[in-house]
Protein 1
Amino acid sequence: MKLRVWLVIFCGGIIADGALAPKPAVDAELVIPFAATYVIGDPIPLVWRFKNISDKPLGFMWEGCCRLNGRLEVTQLGQILTPIPPGEAMAHMFAKAERLEPGHSRDFETHLSDWASLSDSGTYELQGQYVGVLPQQQPQVARGLSLWRDTAVTAPIQLTVLKTTDYLRQRAERGQARGLTIELRGPSVLPPQTPVSLRAMVINTSQVTQRAVWPSHFQLWVMTHSGQRLREVAGLIKAPYTEIALPPGSRWTNDIPFAADQLEGQPFGTYEVFLDLAADGPQTPRVPSNSLSIRWELTQNDVASLINRATAGPAVGARNAPLKLLRTYLTEIRSSLVALNLGSSSPSAAELARQLQLAAHLKPLAPKPGRVDWEIAVNADGHASFIHPLLNERARDLNVAVSNRVAALFSVRRHLGWDVGLVLKPENETTIARLKLAADQLRTFEPELAAPLHLRPFANNSNVVIHLRHAAVAAAGVIEVTRSANEVRIGVLRVSQGLASFSSFTRMKDEMAVREWLAAMPEKSPHLLVLPSSDLLYGQLLDLLRPLARSGATVDLKL
């Protein structure tokens, strides 16, 4: 039986001069389907119901769970809970235009967890507010359809919930009322690669035959030690459909497969697991089993075994699961990796262990997979080295060429899930010739880099990126920068189609003339190619790059 509470608010009122305010176009209410027990961690549905009470159809933006158009105020004992910030909902739905017919209502389903995070047992009051169309929104609706731009506020509703620890304390009472006791048994430690079985036992303690359906009426809950449910771990049990009929005093048992990949990515620690039987009417409450503590971690022996399995390679048509697990927990197993005795390992296992040791040391540089830029300083004497001390610390030999040092670290990027880019940071006194020498040493990595070699010349604006090109590329304009004694000369060439001959440059006396030339170009963000002479100092080149970057131009530098 489902109980639905209808909550309608009238948004009209009396305006200052005593006249009635215009009748609102849309009424709103919040609906939470009835359940005898809601536990924090349940996917509690929260329905937004809108009714068009005007005499014409209306269009509006339903943004679901982004909390831009909608707001949900949740209070407990007079204290307002901090709402979930916009954009952090578990199940994101993009805003889209919707239509409300006159005299009709429409329901839009969300989950309470999209809007608020509850932590304690008790009764909460919920009140919603929704703006049909925000000023910056432009719904794509049929021509002539009026838009609902006003705000609707719902009447408050109440919701009572239990946190998992309080729910588990009610186990005996609920089992007695239901006439069923549920037991859960299993190992205390979860092996990294071998699935285990959790033994579920349902005992009929009543005087009548009890019925249930396996696994439809059951869910497996996995919680942190503090009692917070892991929503990332699916509660559904994958098993054949079975109708259970238990005579008085009888019991039914079944095994539930449980494997480490269900906790993969979760922090190491002890997790609480219990089995939850759904309610079957007002007189048959939901019943939890006992809570089972399972330890999830990788010991040093586990790490050694996983490395040996990983070197054997993946099975046919499968991924290398042991290697994936090692990569996921590089930070956590760092001490175990360092303590490994590589002397007794096979050559391939020893090499993989060394790579993982290096990857574990580098991971603090960028803990999450994705784009990572390594900055390389180029001194005035042409010496190149990593800027970040963590990279320099792990370079095998600082006396070898920078390309060899990059190669030593580049080999472990796949263990970290990094897409590596190389950013050169020359000193102002570094000549273009020395910058070119350093770039040429690193070009061998370009096919595998996330982007071509580049500069980020301005510390206060990391968005300005200048790519280093080995050969000339097509551009809308070409700028030649030369040095004669201490004088810097600038020549520009307007290119209409591809690269033209560089024989006829227009000489410009200073950067102001270049800025005027840029302002006269028809393109808002022209693509420019800069050709610096080899004896030019990088600091001198910066004086030119600064106005080019400010103009919004895309700049390539040919070395």
Protein 2
Amino acid sequence: MRLVRIGLAQVNTTVGAFAANTDAAIAIARAMAADGVTVGVFQEQLIGGYPVEDLVQWQGFVEGQWTHLQRFARETAELPSLFAIGVAVTFHGLRYNAVAAVAGGEVRALVPKEKLPTYNVFYEGRTFTRGVVPGGVDLLQGVPFGDLLVECDFGTVALEVCEDLWSPDGPIGRRAYSGAELVCNVSASPFRLGVVQTRRELINTRASDHAVTIAYANAVGANDGLVFDGGGYVSQNGKAMLDAPRWRAGFAAVTVDLDRTLRLRTENTTWRADQQAWAEANDPVPTVAIPREVLDTAATRATLTYPVPESKSFFLPPIAPQPDPRQAFFEDLLDALAMGVGDYFEKNPFFTCIGVALSGGRDSLLTLLVAHRYASRVRPDDPGAILKAFTMPSQHTSEGTLSAAKQICADLGVPLEEVPIAEAYARELAATEEMLGGAPANEITKQNIQARIRGQRMWNWSNTSGGLFLQTGNMSEKAVGYTTIGGDLEGALGVLANVPKTVVMALLDHLLTTTGYQGIAMVLAKPAGPELAPNQVGEDELMPFPILDACFHLFGAEKLLPDEVAQVVGTMFPELPAEQVRGYVDKFTRMFLGNIYKWVQAPISLHVGTLDLDRERALQLPVVQDKGWTRGG
């Protein structure tokens, strides 16, 4: 047996907080060493935080990270462990996203990231250079830099960064063929709905394909709109050995027998034949050896025990309750949104509290519940100390809406301020009609005046109180412009801006079931609508929300043309006449393309899915365009 203990760390970093990020890593490194960890794997860009975006264009931003990487090395010098830690470096004037091998008080090797994602929420190709060093290996600050392996007393280690694992032709193949037994992947993979299962399957597949043990550590926490769920995996030749907890900082560890990895290679004739063919045509990846006098893990490894299942059976799966996938989906999404709100609030030193304007509708209710989920974790004794709610009734606000707002705030222990806007609305309407030369304002303008008064008041409250003003609109209504610029589109952070309306309603049903809050039931008892006009119902003015979300997904995510969208929607809802379906699709397409100018002005928003309305990070669409292309020309 050749037992090694692998630790996966999760650090909640802040972009640019070099000292704090490194301090947290040092503390976890010491805790891992005390647990007998042989190899500690941290996350991508740990020292600088992630995503760094254009900050890497500042030379000082990159150079400052090297100072703290060396400090990490010095302050972990006495630990008998190898550490893999993400860092940005400069080489010949170019910036690289790299992983450093640290042991015995020094940086021993630097391996740059080769696959740079520039799609969806990623922009690495804009700022970083692809990590292919001419000649294979060079020296950076006296440290071997390039495509290389690290030889330790316990075995051969390969280092890689995030996307290098996701690509089927990534560097893991040649490194495994060159002798790597353990592949340490430092990652910052944002949370997206459904990504967890994909990650797990990907890592097991890569470990099986390349006959290696993979240790994958992911970032945790939120920076701007990206939310990282943490967690990590150890997979030995395709066998899952560790599934680290998510949504929390810290570390998890497992012991593996690296001799098992080598034995499985000898048994796998296909892998051996492929390795031989590769070796005949290629030079092996160079190796950097860490001398035994620098890193001697023998004493610590001698205390390790062979990994045995808790069930004490190597043939039976563990006895564990299987979570309901729908309930797990809801809780994951709520955790992501709460972490996004909490980290945005805590990592910005400008905010003293959080504010939500309750309209009486579903979106603002869910936003309040998400903020409360965060607040009750950091202030379980008094979440209302950092969370405030406001209701600003107009002449169209029903008594049921006011009662529901009061009830949910009582349920949550959150203070509620009632600030009527009827008088302000009358004054603003008169001023508007005066600007129109005495002509009456149209109905849309009358509705928008109410929304803008509320938005202005929330900003005024925020300016003086230092409060984080949360924008409450959902993605579906935002997509078709069912929102007001200067009104409900306003806020410092869009909490639900990438959550479809049907998901909003399902989340509220889930929360009603799990919490029993009467205020939720009171809101759900009435049709969804903004109450900016008499008897206003959102689905009457738009279309049924399931159809709206179907159109949005098929057109926005699947990139189908309207004719194709109508065909699929008609299949989904066969009870509807074909002409009615076509009318809905045409209406959606017209509203979606005609209101891009609105949603590109929305505040920064939390990213939780693969279809996001964010011009900087996701769906980049021109505001000015001719819609004729949707009809084929």
Protein 3
Amino acid sequence: MIDIRRPYGKGVYMSRVINIHHEPDKGSRLPDIRVEEPLTLVIFGGTGDLTRRKLLPALYALSTEKRMPEGYRIVGCGRRDYTSESYREEMLGEIKRFRRVEGSDADLKAFVARIDYFKGELDDPEAYERLNKTLGDKKTYPANRLYYLSTSPEFFQPVIGHLKKSKLIYSAGDPDKWSRVVIEKPFGRDLESALGLNREVLRLLNESQVYRIDHYLGKETVQNILSFRFANTIFEPLFNNRFVDHIQVTASETVGMESGRGAYFDQAGSLRDMMQNHLTQLLCLVTMEPPSGLASDAVRNEKVKVLQSIRVPKLDDVAKNTVRAQYAAGQVNGNRVSAYVNEDRVPGDTRTETYVAAKFFIDNWRWSGVPVLLRTGKRMAKKQTSITVQFKKPPMRLFRTVACSDDICDLTETQPNVLTFRIQPDEGISLHFATKRPSMHMVVEDSELDFGYADNYRGTLPEAYERLLMDVMRGDATLFTRSDEVDAAWRIMDPILQGWKERDASIPLHFYAPGSWGPLAADQLFQNETGHWRNE
């Protein structure tokens, strides 16, 4: 279903809905995608929040949808005093709480029966020897091994080192069995630490064994950016500096430092937590060149080329092209909200940013001169992740444009065409374009062509972790970040962190009201550009 909406008269909206149905030919059904090889999945951090909220519910969904292999086993590793029985009982309740797929009681019990618990310290070599002995029971634990590092970043290298030393990691060329390691973000705190971590990880593992996960890349709507661009000839020719004025990428959140998150976040900040990884990946997908195919390296090669083409900020440009801010105290929906510095486990004198906006330029043939603006923040007006492509205005103003707000209409400037990818929530794609307003006058108005996932597909979209876990179990690295991607992204962001540190006195830390769209100072990024932040 495609919904075309436009204002008609004062305060009245007419809607034309086009239903599009496709009946596939018999025998043309796509083959089911499932994991074929049996495996043992070991989760370090098996008692943590990510395991409870995301990993086990995602694996349960894959199992219920018959995407898991006939033989698989899950081992949760942690320091707490669980037995396998008590761990299963607690995780059963967590899966019920966070699951996307309902399934039957029998399905849930059968899934939980495949989970075991292993107690051990992450930095204890003896624990890995015991783990190796436990997993050596080939009747219970399949030989293929997937290790998921849902741990604090400081444990990434030590855990991999212990796995390697204890012979829990196979050779990358072993024809009979495989071992893979999934590493959660953040991957480094700056360029130096990222280079060092990559160097240590690749000393112990082959790149083909490393899966650096960014859950944004598992979202259905993020993957749809590629299909929208490269499966439609009417749009891709417009994605260049001849037609595009600028691109905006926004990831705003309404939450603050709930659940004691302040201790982690204050060490990271919005640039490390969101911009260096999630927003940079979205930037790559909307600006990359067409890949030679959909194989993992073909896609990742093009993303790296974009990152290598982004102009590295100079120290003197950091103040001009970046804005950092913290949320102040205030009220949201009638409720009192503390300032960031007064949040639990946050130092009172911290200058860590809860909001950051930045302007970048891609110095290549396609995008030369087109600004790309990124912003992300906590305690903002709306939870939203979106990419907006604003096209240039027509070279001649042939028509007058009318705009209406409620029952008041007035003539205004020509509005540019705007294409928006709504990543979350209200997932979909919309296009704003001009149509003649029904009247005796030759005037145009802004109309919207809107595609919504909820209107076109039944059920909920697959969770990002479902897709990513299935891909790593199948050995498909397309949606995972390669080491040179990580390094290239840090080469762009590191100068901003250095600029804030070295020029702290001259680069202000702004403040914004909770429930707003951030500091007014962020508007300065449009000082030499056409347009404004689109707060929709």
Protein 4
Amino acid sequence: MKYLKWFRMVARPVRWMLAASVFIQLCQVFIALTYVYISKALVDIATGDCSSMLWILGEGHSQREGLILYSCALVGFILLRIALQSVINYIENKADVKISNRLRFREFSNLLRLQSDFRAKYHSGDMVNRLQTDVNTISSAVSRCIPNLIGAVLKFGTAFIYLLVLEPKLAWVLVFVVPFGIFGGRFVMRRIRNLTKDVREGDSRVQSHVQETMQHLSIIKTLEYIPNTSAELENMQEDYYSKVMKRTRFTIMARVLTGLAFSLGYAIAFLWGVHGIFLGTVTYGLMTAFLQLVGQIQRPLMEMSDQLPTLFHCTASIDRLEEIDALPKEQEDEPVMVEGIAGIKVTDLEFTYQDGTEKVLEGFSHDFTPGSRTAIVGETGVGKSTLIKLLLALLQPDKGSIEIYGSEGGEVKASSAGRCNLVYVPQGNSLFSGSVRDNLLMGDPDADEQRLKDVLHIAAADFVLDLEKGLDTQCFEAGGGLSEGQAQRIAIARALLRPGTLLLLDEFSSALDPETENTLLERLTSAEVGKTMIFITHRERIADFCDNILKLK
């Protein structure tokens, strides 16, 4: 029932497309049965039995005319079948893209709303793999597999009824023989589902390794770790290969069982027809109909056996996406902007990471008053960056409270609602692929040219205007094409475009030379900026520009 609910949810936007696909397949059923009848009639007319011709055309037509007319009809139905299959392919492709886009957007939106500590359990490469491979598997199953499975059932049922009319005993013999292969394969399919999940996880590990290697390529080169990294990938690929081949063996076993039953069914129909011709109870045309109807019965069953592994693969993919859906989401509230310059008051704060045993912060209290400038210093691991995440409500404290208040009124707890009052500049390079203008407009999409130039000046990033393409200069992945210091200053300019008045800067000037850092601090701490500033830093120079120095232990 869980998987049926998923199929209904995924198929809802394209249900009319899927219904059209099933209807066209129903038309194909009619065409296939008519094709069988025409083939039988052609053979009968060619061998001198013109009863089929008389039944359709009436008397007064020669054998040659009958052959010509039936041959034209045969060609017409072949062309019609090809045309209808082309329409089905078009509908399936359209539905596939719509489903995958919608489902990927849904899961991507869920990822964006997860609590920030989910990466402690799931690698980003694994998440990307789920958004690609698993989403594509589900969309393909819903847009192609399920309609084709319904069509196969219709084809099988009508072909069986037709054969039942022509030769009841043969029809019942085939129905009892062929399902043995299907049921035999079904027991094997149960194992395939678990193997598919293992294959997906192996594929995710490979992708995660490649992605992380590309992100830290310079470190790998300087550590001369390339051979080791390549060896790790090779081991992962060998593990992935063994899992794929194990699943392949089970899939082949299922298909062999099905194939044996189908071959036996065809042999029974052939020998039945030969025996009937020998006794004079079966015409050549009727034997042709037997063989084609056996194909019409077996082909849908073969299609069903091909679709079943896809459905089992799909259930494994649904389980993997459900793991994302089950992760705790951040509560979303309407933004609440305080009046005037924001301050933030922390009272008796305690925090311990889920997998940790020691408290990172304990009994911490401080009032970052509006307009103040505070430097937070301390040794690595004492909780400086953790405190920033708590202020941003990216983490939730175990105990204590965090209140954001305005110099002219208003108050809100640290949460998604209060986050609009804060502006964050993280450590290192935080630019996105695109132009400098694109990165700046992330701070305020409505900012005009003059405002962009103003914040670049405050952030000591005037160099952008001297570049050949100015604001339209392209940044590559992780700010490639710019120095670390240039990227840091552009990130600060982007933050200054945000409406919040409480500025959190985490080692924001680590890549700057003393002269540039001094210019930046002078401009940033000037009265015109009008912001409360909290600096996470190891640099003594920054403390000279602050009102308070807060040392964490």
